[in-house]
Structure formats: C-alpha cells, structure tokens
Amino acid sequence: MRNKVIEEYQQRLEKDPDNLNLRETLVETYFWNGLKEKAIQESYIILATHSFRQLKEFDTAQKDLLSLIDSLYLYSTYFRQMAGRSTALRGEASAALSSYTDALNQAKRFEEQLRVAAERGQTVPIPEKRRPPGDPPQPGRKTRPNHRDHR
Predict the structure, then answer these.
(1) Taking a C-beta distance cutoff of 8 angstroms, is the pair 144, 126 a contact?
(2) Burial letters for 104-124: b for 16+ Cβ neighbours within 10 Å, e otherwise?
(3) Is 46 in contact with 23 (CB distance < 8 Å)?
(4) CA 119 to CA 94: how far, in whole Å?
(5) Does the residue 137 lie in any domain?
(6) pLDDT tens digits, residue range 19-74?
(7) In this prediction, what percent of the chain has a pLDDT beyond 90?
(8) Which residues form the domain of 30?
C-alpha cells in the first residue's frame, strides 16, 4: 500500500513539479516509512524551489529599484569621467579668465595713455599687439597723430 501511495505522489509530481504542498506530503510519507535519504533529497528540492520563488518575487517586486541600480552602475563610469573633465575645463576656464583679465588691464592702460596723450596734445599711441614667442616684430609706426591735431 505505501509503495502505491508513494508512486501516486511521484506521478502527480511529474505532472506538477512545482507543487510544494505535494512535495511536503511526499517528504512526510518517505520519513514515516523509513526512507529518510529520499525524504532529505526531496527536502532539498523543496528548499531550492522555495528559494527560487522568493528570488523571483523579489525581482518582480523590486523591478524598478533593480533597474535604477543597473542604470546607476552604467552611469557611474560617465560620472567619474565627468569629474576629470570638469577639472580640465576648470583649468582651461582659469587660463581664459587670466588672459581676459590681462587683456582688460592692457586696454585700461591704453585708454589711460590715450586720455593723457589727448590732454597733452601729443600723438596718440598705437596699442601694442601681443605676438606669440618667436614671432618677428611687424614693421610699422608705434604712434599715430592725434586727430585733433589735424583740424
């Protein structure tokens, strides 16, 4: 009789292998009939199936969170690169600001020279052009006559 019951449970499990209630009944049947090794093996199957179901439920329930974690992982490289790039850009911006400040100061000095030259009736100076190092000087006048002197 017990073999017939065990066979029936096994046949039902072949049709529905994920039926944990039936597997638990089979474990109890094995155990009470002295088939402890089979009971232990069947218990492992129950544990594995239950664990798989829990993970599947977690994946389903936390789909948005897992998607966000995946996205953050993918973007982490981008964000690290941006930190380095921003440091480089900060250096470029600092150099550009320094050049602009120098040019602005030169313009102010030149405007002051123009004002002083106009007040004194002197020839108006021509602004100096910065040349890259190694560039030969351009021939030409360094000053031009004040327009007021030619009236």
Answers:
(1) yes
(2) eeeeeeeeeeeeeeeeeeeeb
(3) yes
(4) 37
(5) no
(6) 999 999 999 999 999 999 999 999 999 999 989 989 888 888 888 888 888 888 88
(7) 32
(8) 2-61
